Amino acid sequence: MSHGIRRAAQLLSEARRVVCLTGAGASAESGVPTFRDAQTGLYANLDPMELASAQAFRRDPGFVWRWYMQRFGRLQDVIPNQGHLALAELETFVPSFLVVTQNVDDLHERAGSIDVVHLHGNIARYRCHDCRHPYELSEAEIAAEEPPNCPDCGDLIRPDVVWFGEELPPELLARARQAATDCQVMLVVGTSGSVYPAADIPYWAKTSGATVIDVNPEATPISRMADLFLRGPSGEILPEILDALELFRPGEVDDGDDDY
């Protein structure tokens, strides 16, 4: 067991409030293509920024709808990886454990995580573009060439995700910020730290006195400001931390040999 893994486990075992921010890397380990790598078929040469916008949806709703239904369909066969499962298990060790994710899949929930904030929305949920009323899609509507109409106002139904040019839901961002400023440990998993305002969350935690642990195969700006950087895929690092936590369960004795 490395010093870093043991140290991360000790910090988590002592914390009462933990926030975990996850990014595209966490889902990529399950085979979910990152946003810019998701283009196939008719969409292979298109800029996703030109598709994931309200302007594109208004211009050609059927085209955007079919692209999202293709993405949604590809996610149905994806399963949570060992990193997702470890985070769900970590939740049982800490009195307050919140997952804040930039990902639009539901892999955290399917792994067993209970408290998850989707800053950028969820591709498995749908709403009216105008009145924002939630909408449950039928199988026929998923396979349709055009989006259905809202039964309340008649506008078009769209995926409940945040498109380019749209603001994050203020209540979700406020909850993430409050949790970050209140937590004792901020765990960052698989994010490049380049998409704002989500990238600010670890800094909010750091400036409020939290210890920041970054888990990533490659160094990022967050890695450089983190108190502890664990290089590697989350599907390997997080289960190792989970195993190490057994050393710090009540009744276990820590001889301190590896302490910093």
Describe this structure in words.
This protein is an alpha/beta fold and 260 residues long. It folds into 2 domains: 3-31 and 80-120 and 169-248, TPP-binding domain (Rossmann fold, 3-Layer(aba) Sandwich), CATH 3.40.50.1220; 36-77 and 126-161, SIR2/SIRT2 'Small Domain' (2-Layer Sandwich). Helix content is 37%, strand content 17%. The strands form 2 sheets. The chain has a 6-stranded parallel beta sheet, with helices on both faces. Helix 9 packs parallel to helix 10 (201-207). The protein starts with a helix and ends in a 15-residue tail after the last helix.
Short structural description:
With 260 residues, this protein is α/β, with parallel strands linked by helices. The chain folds into two domains: 3-31 and 80-120 and 169-248, TPP-binding domain (Rossmann fold), CATH 3.40.50; 36-77 and 126-161, SIR2/SIRT2 'Small Domain' (2-Layer Sandwich). Helix content is 37%, strand content 17%.
Mean pLDDT across every amino acid position:
89
**Alpha-carbon distance between the termini?**
15 Å
CATH superfamily of the largest domain, by name, is TPP-binding domain
- Under CATH at level 1, the class of the largest domain stands as Alpha Beta
How many E strands? 9
Strand fraction: 15-25%
Overall, the morphology is: elongated
Using only C-alpha atoms, the radius of gyration works out to 20 Å
- Sheet with most strands: 6 strands, parallel
